[in-house]
Amino acid sequence: MSLTGPATKKQRMDVKTIGTHNGTFHCDEALAVFLLRQTDTYKDASLKRSRDPAVLDDCDIVVDRGFTEVFGHGFSTKLSSAGLVYKHFGKEVVASAAGLEPSDKKVDILWLKMYKEFIEALDAIDNGISQFSPQEQPKYRNRTDLSSRVGWLNPRWNESTDSQKVDALFLKASQLTGDEFLGRLDYYANAWLPARDLVSVGLSSRQNVDASGKIMLFEQFGPWKEHLFELEAEQGISEDELPFYVIYPDETGGNWRIQAVPVSPESFDSRKALPEKWRGVRDDELSKISGVDGCIFVHASGFIGGNKTKEGALNLAKLALKM
Questions:
Q1: pLDDT in tens, 47-65
Q2: Exposed/middle/buried for residue 88 (C-beta within 10 Å: 0-12, 13-18, 19+)
Q3: pTM here?
Q4: Are 61 and 6 in contact (CB under 8 A)?
Q5: What is the DSSP letter of 213?
Q6: Ranges of the chain with pLDDT below 50
Q7: How many angstroms separate the most distant Cα atoms in the chain?
Q8: Residue 252: what pLDDT?
Q9: Contact between residue 278 and residue 305 where contact means Cβ atoms under 8 Å apart
Q10: Smaller CB count within 10 Å for the chain: N or C?
């Protein structure tokens, strides 16, 4: 499916009308309609589902009509109707749902994050863009994604396709996509984004932890990898000044972790893995080899280790820098 171009807009003083095609519905237009209804302009809009050009031409905006556009900002996936609406109205939706002023720079961060993590996949699926090359065969089938779950809401082949019934199912699908969108946005706005401040403080104060600037200390756990790489790029930190290790408290065990910073957010390779002779060693044996009390483990790949105390984790990091 495609999407309705920037849309058919008509300036009216009465209630707005959103148009889209009838018949089988898909995730993209279901979410597009939901998103439009989160804006001031279309929050009370009625909906018309039809393939009659005369009906659609009378609407204020129409989604899921042929068009070609991409999101930009480094993204090249062809947009679906969801992506197109999100591109043009998404900042308003994000600001409103997150309780932020439209001018707040956090709106831009969340707008881009939601496209990357939520919307782009819907665009790709709608446009038949595979995650894999044609030579690769997926090892399993996944029919639990949002696009698939919307698809299952359509009437079965041997059920009635009465227009009123299908329209009601479309509204159910629209609410499903909207609830998931808002739930994901709530996480990014109130859990993921606040961690950025934690990482920013740790990055700027790392010389206070160790003069080398290679060790960062977080007094509480939070998602840090993506923020760290973005902040390093924004601040123009040179390669020879990049941190190697992050120290943070275990989320549940009351212990402390030392983790090697990966070469990229998704990589299993580290900028400087923990010393080879520590890898795969645990407890007292690790304490004996390293000379640091309270050791718990170092992973066999050297990307992470644990100690019972913050001081112990810091000592491991400082020793690792010299090895």
A1: 999 999 999 999 999 998 7
A2: middle
A3: 0.85
A4: no
A5: S
A6: 1-12
A7: 81
A8: 83
A9: yes
A10: C
